[in-house]
Specification:
The protein is mostly helical and 180 residues long. It is 47% helix and 8% strand. Helix 2 links the parallel strand 1 (18-20) and strand 2. Helix 2 packs across helix 9 (148-164).
Length: 180
Amino acid sequence: MTLLPEVIDAVGGKIPVVAAGGIADGRGLAAALMLGASGVLMGTRFYATQESAALQAAKERVRSATGDDTLRSIVFDISRRNVWPAPFTGRCLRNSHADRWFGREIELLRHQETEAARYAQARSAGDFDIAAVIAGEATGLIPDIPSAKDIVENVVRDASALLSNSARHVAPHATSNQIS
């Protein structure tokens, strides 16, 4: 949230800025708009929708996880033989495969042939104790698996209500010294 206003200030309002990361509900949209964003990107929230191509078991893992259940790592990239250039990593839900190899990526590279085959088999079988469920920290804000339409309607409704009622959250007689 601190980076967003800095970026908006840096572009001087000449380029629309979209906030991303950790946004999954109307509160996140309202906060981003209040900070000057033109909109938001919600990846994990739309992963857990009825229309998502993800397997139901993966959606259920997203729904039942918290942000603390995620891990930023290259373990899954190594296992898929698809390593991105540094410093780019991915965030996924922790599982037994990640727990086994996190912090031991060099050793995983030494066993990549075997582990890549094991990973591919798990992915085909929908075994998410090995295969990755790509999800961000917003997973803790996802209590259900609705339609994408319902998400958009609910997020916009909730953000609109928050923004229209935002003035009541600041005490009418508060001075700037009391607020800080």
